[in-house]
Design goal:
The complex is a heterodimer. By secondary structure, chain A is of the alpha+beta class. Chain A is 17% helix and 38% strand. In chain A, strands 2-5-12-7-10 form a 5-stranded antiparallel β-sheet, with no helix packed on it. A 3-stranded antiparallel β-sheet of chain A has the order 11-6-13. In chain A, strands 8-9 form a two-stranded antiparallel sheet. Chain B is α+β, with helices and mostly antiparallel strands. Chain B is rod-shaped and about 140 Å long. The chains are: A alpha+beta, B alpha+beta.
Chain lengths: 203, 375
């Protein structure tokens, strides 16, 4: 049994009401200190009413959460040579999204190509044919040198809204070995990697 | 008081006791959490399902990365700035500098990059779906409900004794524990006059409502709530390997010193049987145009250069004279002058510069010096 002073103290409306505020404090503190954790999502489930799920592929039907290009490789690239890949971005979620792009070179000689600014990326809204992209340039990405870091921002401004539930955007990525690539880059190898990030922030 | 009134009274008291218990539980959890360095994690995606689903809250403790093992679920910040909570697949590295390979339970591939880390948050407890509740309470209409809750509670806290809307039970007397019951808010409410006390109460009520709204606004405003969710997709290119291109080698053949006065005999032996100037050029594209400039540095043709027909004052733009491919191929062959003769040159020292220029205007040149004599 509780002693009378404590018992009556616990019966006090003001004390009880004060203690009730603890729950709110916990919610506030959780909001401030909690880490929101989120990464390469497989399910479209999210906390808010809609969902976004960005996928990429050579066409809308085959778009997936990761995509390895089929026409963006070369074995004996010389200055002026280009490789290109048609890419369809698809939103398999229910809410609209905008996207940004980061990317760069990885592999053995990424640094050599990066330092020389020799691999030039151009993105258009057309399609790839014989290593060249048709169409007009997207987001001013025209002959932008790829760096040796695959997380370098290429398109930082959120791009065109892709409506939810099957909405798509078609792009063409073209990489050119600079006409003035130095001789020292002969026989070198690098692998480009790009990360398109969909965001629900469409403001 | 009527029966219905009593029933309502009891219900309100019970509700108040319940919320107070919840509050105490929350405060104890918070206190314990901050003592032990525990941070909550809100899951916004299902990459760890079915172990941890979207909307769950997990609790994690900061530990040294050295101490985590495959199978543990850890949380860390990826280079992109995103917080990733995935299961450990591999842990390599030296000392406390670790490289962690992670994989989401729902993902069929491991994360593309290994994460560098010295310390991580290790998940040890999961509460399903609590994140949804907190998320709901952090935005309209939930946040209004929360504000109303705070306002109501604050009004009760600051209510004067005897003004009770909620019964404290028939036997509850103000004189029993005067210290704990006396609201210690401001001098104002301690004024003995009844009128002033009533006025003070009203002010307190208003204060309670305003304070409640402000408190909720402060608690809920943190930017974390507004964070949009993101969803990345990686597009991997294939290997790009460069071939060989351009000019890699230009070497004028060193004619050395020429001893005979009017014959081209020595030249003949040097440049594959021809009495001319020559140079070897390697150009992977086979697109080079090769030219030479022959300049006298002393002797007969001092300060003059050869324009293909005559020696003219040096320097002169006309002194870049084309060579033609004599032996080998355009990608690797010997280039030769066409109409210079030993007799044109007389006696003296010369500098021979050979320049190859390819289709993309890349150039490479090389010079040598030689001497002619009449002995």
């Amino acid at each position: 049994m509780l002693k009378p002073p404590l018992r009556s103290w616990l019966r006090d409306t003001r004390v009880l009401a004060g203690l009730s505020l603890g729950a709110v404090a916990a919610i506030g503190v959780t909001g401030t200190f909690a880490f929101w954790t989120d990464t390469a999502t497989i399910t479209g489930q999210t906390l808010t009413s809609g969902s976004i799920d960005l996928k990429a592929g050579a066409d809308a039907a085959s778009a997936a959460d990761a995509f390895t290009t089929t026409t963006m490789g070369a074995t004996a690239m010389v200055p002026g040579n280009t490789v290109a890949q048609t890419l369809v971005l698809k939103n398999a979620g229910t809410a609209p999204l905008k996207w940004t792009l980061a990317g760069g070179l990885g592999g053995t000689d990424a640094a050599a190509f990066g330092t020389a600014s020799a691999m030039l990326l151009t993105i258009t809204n057309g399609t790839a044919s014989a290593g060249l992209c048709s169409g007009s340039v997207v987001a001013s990405v025209s002959s932008v040198p790829l760096t040796s870091t695959t997380t370098t921002s290429i398109i930082g401004t959120r791009q065109a809204l892709i409506p939810g539930n099957g909405g798509t955007t078609s792009l063409c990525l073209q990489i050119k070995l600079d006409d003035n690539a130095p001789q020292s880059l002969a026989g070198k190898t690098a692998t480009p990697t790009f990360t398109f990030v969909g965001t629900s922030d469409v403001s | 008081m009527s029966k219905v009134g009593h029933a309502l009274d009891r219900a309100r008291t019970a509700a108040l006791v319940a919320t107070a218990a919840l509050g105490v539980l929350c405060l104890l959890t918070l206190a314990l959490g901050s003592l032990l360095g525990v941070r909550p994690l809100l899951f916004r995606s299902g990459s760890m399902s079915p172990t941890i689903s979207t909307g769950d809250i997990a609790f994690a403790r900061t530990v040294s990365a050295e101490g985590v093992h495959p199978g543990d679920i850890v949380s860390l910040v990826a280079p992109s700035g995103q917080r990733v909570t995935h299961r450990v697949v591999g842990n390599t590295g030296v000392g406390e500098q670790r490289k962690l390979t992670l994989k989401g339970d729902a993902n069929n591939v491991i994360d593309p990059l290994a994460y560098d880390a010295t310390s991580v948050q290790k998940v040890f407890l999961r509460v399903p779906k609590l994140g949804y509740a907190i998320d709901w309470l952090s935005r309209a209409p939930g946040v209004y409900l929360l504000a109303a809750y705070v306002a109501l509670m604050l009004t009760m806290v600051f209510r004067r004794r005897g003004d009770s809307g909620v019964s404290r039970g028939a036997g509850s007397q103000s004189s029993a524990t005067p210290v704990s019951r006396e609201p210690v808010i401001s001098g104002e409410v301690r004024v003995v006059s009844t009128d002033f006390r009533r006025e003070g109460r009203r002010r307190l009520h208003r204060f309670g409502v305003v304070a409640g709204v402000v408190a909720v606004a402060l608690l809920i405003t943190p930017a974390t709530w507004a964070a949009a969710w993101t969803n990345p997709v990686v597009v991997a290119g294939q290997q790009l390997t460069s071939g060989a291109w351009g000019i890699t080698f230009v070497a004028p053949v060193n004619n050395g010193s020429y001893g005979t006065k009017n014959a081209n005999s020595t030249w003949t032996t040097v440049c594959s049987g021809s009495p001319q100037l020559c140079a070897n050029v390697v150009d992977a594209d086979g697109t080079s145009v090769v030219k030479y400039t022959l300049t006298g540095t002393s002797g007969t043709q001092a300060n003059k250069c050869y324009d293909g027909n005559n020696f003219v004052a040096s320097p002169s733009a006309t002194c870049a004279v084309s060579m033609s491919l004599a032996t080998g191929t355009a990608t690797n062959g010997q280039w030769r002058s066409t109409n210079i003769t030993r007799q044109n040159m007389g006696v003296g020292t010369y500098t021979l510069t050979v320049t190859a220029t390819d289709a993309n205007s890349r150039t490479m040149s090389q010079s040598i010096s030689f001497t002619t004599t009449n002995t």
